[in-house]
Amino acid sequence: MELLQGLLAQTGRNVKLRINDNRSTMISVRWHPLEVRLSLHRMFLYAPEEVLQALLHYIRAGKNAAFPPEIRLFLQEGTAHLDYKHRLDPEALICKGVHYDLKTFYDEVNKNYFDSSLDLSITWYGSQKRRFRSTVTFGLYSDPLKLVKIHRLLDSPDVPPYFLDFIVYHEMLHSVCRPKGGRIHTREFRQREKQHRYYFLSERWIQENKHKYF
Fold it and tell me: Last residue of some domain: 79, 112, 129?
């Protein structure tokens, strides 16, 4: 903490620092005429000096500065070790839908592709009614929460089970294939994605039905 505060004093700006324990926004910098409001995840308390130096230059440069690659890499590596799964409310997780039970898909995918080694949670999210002119994100993965979220629009008799199986696999794969160099879908991820038994069938299905979701 002292090292961090000492470096911030070198910015020549009045920096208001707040340490957070957020699950998503790890860094927030807001430049104001009389001060800079800085919110950092607690992992920055243990950041190496090159990361803190990058933060120092970033604050000095002002709001039009490019986000430092040193900090981006630090966040990518740091979030891989965060675990907020204990904060999840089990009662808030909804696996059983009208047509599909996500837990069944999760268990099968975990067994068939990951040797039942993953310990993640899964839930439906979103509305089954599509908003006009909106696009749909079929699935999301939160690494700190170890949580897979699948959009409720896929809980439909119009969606074949093989496609839902693939989407669940895709999101679970994010827990294994880490982002690299700012890329979420790395070469390794794309290669392993194609190992799913219904990969090509799913790709064809979404091409034929994308007008319904995008």
Answer: 79
Helices 161-173, 102-114: axis angle to 10 degrees equals 60
Q: What is the pTM of this model?
A: 0.64
Measured over the CA atoms of residue 166, residue 168, residue 174 and residue 175, the dihedral's sign is negative
Q: Which of 79, 103, 127 is the endpoint of a domain?
A: 79
Could you tell me if 94 and 54 lie in one domain? no
Which residues in the chain show pLDDT less than 50? 132-133
Q: Phi and psi dihedrals of 158, rounded to 5? A: -80, -15
Tokens 């091409």 identify what position? 207
pLDDT value, residue 92: 80
Do 20 and 123 have their domain in common?
no
| Number of domain units in the chain | 2
Which amino acid is it at 79? T
What's the CA angle centered on 76, arms 173 and 108, to 5 degrees? 15
Q: What is the DSSP string of 43-91?
A: GGGG--HHHHHHHHHHHHH-TTSPPPHHHHHHHHHHHTT---GGG--GG
Q: Can you say whether residue 159 is alpha, beta or left, with left for phi > 0 and alpha for psi between -120 and 50 degrees?
A: beta
Q: For 36-52, what is each residue's pLDDT tens digit?
A: 899 988 888 888 888 88
Q: Give me the domain span that covers residue 93.
A: 85-212
